[in-house]
Amino acid sequence: TSSRSVCPHALCSFFFFSSWLPQAVPLRGGHWQSSLLAFRASIPVRAQPKKKKKVDVRREQAQKDRMKKKIKKLEKAAPEMIPIEDFITPLKYSDSNRVRSLPPLSFEETERRVLLMKKWCLFKHKQDKAEKKAIQTLVEAQQEALKELRLESEELYQAAIRRDEGLFPFERDGPNYTPPLPGYDPPEGKSVDITKVYTQ
Amino acid sequence: TAAAPRPWRLFGAMCLLRLPRITQPLEKEEEEMAALMEQIELEKSCYSDHEIRKLGEEEQLKRRKESMYDDDEVRGKTVIMAQDLEDKWEQKFLRFEAAPRITDADKSNNRKSLNRKLDSNLMLLVKQKIGNKELWLLPQVEWQPGETLRSTAERAMATFLGDHVQAKTLGNAPYGIYKYKFPRAIRTEDNVGAKVFFFKAFLQSSDLSQAELKEDHLWVTKDELGDYLKPEYLKKINRFLLD
């Protein structure tokens, strides 16, 4: 209890004062002790909890501010780059035993390859020109049709050049090598996705 | 002032396309190039885990044959070799039978079926009566005031294939026009000729069993159009058809 903790302190101060003052005044332990017997009432026993409230609140506020500052600093720092897994060759593929051993290319082979590349270049060029010409005729035909339509009726023309909202997004499954097999039952299986997902 | 009524009659026609289901065969240059690309990729690559395992096992077999080890008798357990796995996979692949690229309809040249020529676009042609002649045309119907030309074309499609056809019309604008004057006998001041506006649509559903095909119809590719259409009409149509 608080009386025990205060008592030695009061006695100490009492003795200190008694050695100090050489007067014949009834010695009292300072202003905080009106009488030896009434110390429990006068000494403010509730000082500790009050101090706790203020100091703690201030301390807590200071802690919160420090945390907020740290968070702001972290946010300001530039986000970490997400590594592109495709560009990083795993180390196990740089071993020497992994190098393929093939016979070197002969002169005829390199010649054949160069000539084939040139033929391919020409082929693709012709294909591209044909495609562009086809698109050009397509656009011209459409422009002609719209011109004729305008001559007919302005209202129909305006309806024709309006944008078709339902057209895009347009989705279609591309052609495969073989047509779908009727009544084909694909084998059962489960695929587990193990791709690594990075968050910034 | 009201505009004078134009002497041209308007028609909306629909070019319904069934898109290809399989890829077209490669040209000679494309095949050669594909082979070359594969070879170059092989040359630039490293050994994979499977190949290293295979090479290691081949080495082991060779060593065993040369020095007659008694390893396999001592061990007594069968180890699956990479070569065995490859054989097993090959067997499994050979057991699978894909659908043929050239269908029965191709062989019998049944031009009414949709299963023909799976690698090219097929167009719908119907036999219609124009004037007093029966002609093969893209389905067309006369425009009625109050509707846009696109809805006229869609109505033409519905007239010949029924209401349950699922087709995606590509846009509000016409793709081409065919203008012709009526023969002098029936030409009047108000009725000089007709303009046919063509629209394009992609056939979405491959199942037309519900469609009530009333008139004579055909599904043809771009090259076969010449067998049925008049030259002037064909010229105008070819402009907006991509092969």
Automatic annotation (TrEMBL), chain A:
Region called Disordered, residue ranges: 168-193
Protein name: Large ribosomal subunit protein mL40
Coiled coil regions, renumbered to chain: 50-77, 132-159
Keywords: Coiled coil, Mitochondrion, Ribonucleoprotein, Ribosomal protein, Signal, Transit peptide
Localization of this protein: Mitochondrion
Keyword Signal: yes
Lineage: Eukaryota, Metazoa, Chordata, Craniata, Vertebrata
Keyword DNA-binding tagged: no
InterPro entries, per the entry: Ribosomal_mL40, Ribosomal_mL40_metazoa/plant
Endpoints of the signal sequence: 1-26
Protein family membership: Belongs to the mitochondrion-specific ribosomal protein mL40 family.
Name of encoding gene: Mrpl40
Domain of life of the organism encoding this protein: Eukaryota
GO cellular component terms, semicolon-separated: mitochondrial large ribosomal subunit
TrEMBL record, chain B:
Listed GO MF terms: structural constituent of ribosome
CDD domains membership: NUDIX_MRP_L46 (cd04661)
Residues covered by the Large ribosomal subunit protein mL46 N-terminal domain: 8-106
UniProt cross-references to Pfam families, sorted A to Z: MRP-L46 (PF11788)
Gene3D superfamilies found in the cross-reference section: Nucleoside Triphosphate Pyrophosphohydrolase
Main location: mitochondrion
Entry keyword set: Mitochondrion, Ribonucleoprotein, Ribosomal protein, Transit peptide
GO annotations of cellular component type: mitochondrial inner membrane; mitochondrial large ribosomal subunit
Presence of keyword Signal: no
SUPFAM superfamilies attached to this UniProt entry: Nudix
Keyword Membrane: no
Subcellular location: Mitochondrion
Family under the similarity heading: Belongs to the mitochondrion-specific ribosomal protein mL46 family.
Protein name: Large ribosomal subunit protein mL46
